[in-house]
TrEMBL record:
GO terms for biological process: protein O-linked glycosylation. It holds the Pfam family Galactosyl_T. Keywords: Glycosyltransferase, Golgi apparatus, Membrane, Signal-anchor, Transferase, Transmembrane, Transmembrane helix. GO terms for molecular function: hexosyltransferase activity. This is Uncharacterized protein. It comes from Adineta steineri.
């Protein structure tokens, strides 16, 4: 038995906890009511209000939907053009410049993927476009997919979102704050948009931007299992007898929802339904006094679905991997579980880093299904201009990059051939003493990677660096070259070995050797070059040897991303000997994963593991580092080649 002292102590602590919980509850009710008032004001803003609010921003394309059009749509879908008819009537949208839904000949095979995203998640939208959210017709399934991203209002990234709209034509902005209490509003608004602007889409798949999805498994399910004619309803992984939370992050007050138990609802990470069911959901919410509950999945797929009397079904023989707290080994899960439809990415648990995980998992999914994907190349815009990160502008046709270089008259240049998402430049800036003194030039011709690189390097912390991003293919001549785009880190010059010819386009190439000799004109210039050109390193570097420009660089870092290929090892040895013959010393080899680890820990370069034996290197993503020997004698700009080689 407890002593009287312990009993009194427990009672006192219990009272304190009760009082604290009571006042927290009252405060939360007040805060939520204030939030409702705020969103009510925001939702009653018309499209003209938005146009006036952002009229000072210089946009190249008109992206705001005409008010008259929305009025007609309200009357058609909601039954009234009155903006105060219901909460739905007050949702407005800022659409891309062109119609988003491009219907195929037969709309029975048309599916849209509705992705809820945050305005700031540019990088994740990019990788979704390049992986599981690719648009176009999937030939083996005879299904056409259109992915559409929905973001809320965030003034800090407003202009960037508008530019993204104009470029990719797949982002819809809604007049709803980017705050957790309004997630359900965003989700409901996305359904309304679907009925407004994409009414002929037969199937709708709702997803979050933090999932990793096996698109082929989903299409296989639709083709062989789903029968909306016989069982039209909402499909997902349903939960039963879930208690309504009253005092935590997912708390819902009795003023919002009185019952203690939610109706059956599915995880909001993804679910599938028809456009007919979408209209029924809209009809159920289309009432003046309808209360939107802030817990999106419980509200849309539970309360509103139950109110609309829509049946629900579990995904048959499809699994998911989901957690709130710990990282999931999605790569192992996708490799070993043939029925795994989706897995939560690191973003879901708050680990916001570079989304390499999406590319890695997508490669596993492609290999598992032994398929390549078809998509519309026209989705990806052609990039023609060099971007100046320091001045946040594109250089005009008459404005040479060389006018802006050597701005501090300190002759240090870092050239990164293959920017991808800017990671390697971040590493260079972090690990290199006095990196602020360098003029940094990077090449990235892949449109998706170019945007990732531009976004990363345009961060405020890099604004003082003189960085240029050039959208050209680095090669041995000026002209056009076949280039495989939209493959993340594996984008590159087409090697005629892969079957995915749908992603091959003709891009502008430059003679790097000639370009480098024109760039490096001042004496005592120190040039550091990082080269990523899988399968074409030898042919590219031989051209520099012939032109006597290899020695214009004081250091070369050569990326070997495919050492597991048996044909790569002889090439590696050949180049190793070539660098040695022309005055370079190999100072060792490093591994990209180890560099990433040291970078994330904010440790110096001295802590990076250095290898000195080729046979001991890891099989993927390794670097060979070559430094020009000090005993060359003559300036690299006047040195003549000791050996005369044939021109390639």
């Amino acid at each position: 038995m407890f002593s009287p002292f312990c009993t009194h102590l427990i009672l006192i602590v219990s009272c304190v906890v009760f009082i604290f919980s009571y006042f927290s509850y009252i405060k939360r009710i007040q805060t939520y009511q204030q939030s409702l008032q705020l969103t009510s004001k925001l939702l009653t803003s018309t499209s003209n209000d938005f146009q006036n609010q952002f009229s000072s921003i210089n946009l190249t394309t008109k992206t705001i939907t005409d008010t008259t059009d929305e009025k007609l749509l309200r009357e058609k879908i909601l039954g009234s053009s009155d903006i105060n008819h219901s909460m739905l009537s007050r949702f407005t949208f800022i659409n891309p410049p062109k119609p988003v839904c491009n219907y195929p000949k037969y709309t029975q095979q048309f599916m849209i993927i509705v992705v809820l995203s945050r305005g700031i998640n540019f990088d994740y939208r990019q990788v979704i476009r390049a992986t599981w959210g690719r648009n176009g017709k999937y030939k083996n399934y005879n299904i056409f997919i259109q992915t559409i991203f929905f973001v809320g209002t965030d003034d800090t990234v407003q202009l960037a979102v508008r530019n993204e709209q104009a470029m990719f034509n797949d982002v819809v902005e809604m007049n709803i704050p980017e705050n957790y209490p309004f997630v359900a509003h965003k989700e409901l608004a996305s359904l309304l948009w679907t009925r407004y602007y994409c009414p002929l889409a037969r199937i709708i798949f709702r997803a979050d931007d933090d999932i990793l999805l096996d698109t082929f498994l989903l299409l296989n399910y639709i083709q062989h299992t789903l029968n909306l004619d016989a069982k039209d309803g909402l499909y997902g992984w349903f939960r039963f007898n879930n208690t309504v939370h009253r005092a935590d992050k997912w708390a819902v007050t009795k003023l919002e929802y009185q019952p203690k138990i939610y109706p059956p609802y599915t995880f909001g990470i993804s679910y599938l339904f028809s456009n007919v069911s979408c209209q029924r959901l809209i009809n159920a919410a289309n009432h003046a006094n309808h209360q939107i509950i802030r817990i999106g999945d419980a509200y849309i797929t539970g309360i509103l679905r139950d109110l609309a009397n829509i049946p629900f079904y579990d995904f048959e023989n499809l699994q998911y991997a989901y957690t709130f707290y710990t990282e999931i080994p999605c790569d192992n899960y996708f490799e070993t579980k043939s029925d795994l439809l989706l897995c939560m990415s690191k973003l879901h648990i708050g680990q916001r880093g570079d989304p390499y995980e999406f590319y890695d998992i997508w490669e596993i999914i492609l290999a598992k299904h032994n398929r390549s994907i078809s998509f519309s190349i026209s989705t990806y815009p052609e990039i023609l201009q060099t971007y100046d990160v320091h001045r946040l502008k594109y250089l005009s046709e008459n404005e040479s990059m060389t006018y802006n270089i050597y701005r501090n008259k300190i002759n240090y240049i870092y050239i990164d051939i293959g920017c991808f998402n800017g990671e390697t430049i971040e590493h260079f800036i972090h690990f290199t003493p006095q990196s602020i003194l360098y003029d940094i030039i990077t090449f990235e011709p892949d449109p998706i990677n170019y945007q990732l690189c531009k976004q990363k390097l345009s961060q405020a912390k890099y604004r003082d660096y003189n960085i240029f991003i050039i959208p050209k293919v680095v090669w041995i001549y000026n002209g056009k070259i076949s280039y495989q785009i939209n493959r993340g880190q594996k984008s590159g010059i087409y090697n005629n070995k892969t079957e995915d010819t749908q992603s091959v386009v003709e891009l502008d190439a430059i003679d790097f050797s000639s370009w480098l000799s024109n760039l490096v004109t001042l004496n005592n210039t120190k040039v550091h070059i990082r080269l990523t050109m899988p399968g074409f390193e030898t042919r590219f570097l031989r051209k520099l040897v012939v032109d006597n420009t290899l020695l214009l660089a004081n250091r070369w870092d050569v990326d070997w991303s495919s050492r597991s290929d048996p044909s790569v090892y002889p090439e590696h040895v050949y180049l190793h000997l070539m660098f040695d013959s022309f005055g370079f010393t190999c100072i060792g080899f490093t591994h990209l994963r180890n560099i990433r680890k040291i970078f994330k820990m904010k440790q110096p370069y001295a802590n990076v593991t250095m290898y000195y034996n080729l046979s001991q290197l890891p099989q993927t993503d390794t670097y060979s580092h070559y430094v020009q020997r000090p005993d060359i004698g003559e300036s690299p700009r006047t040195l003549k080649p000791a050996v005369k080689l044939k021109t390639i």
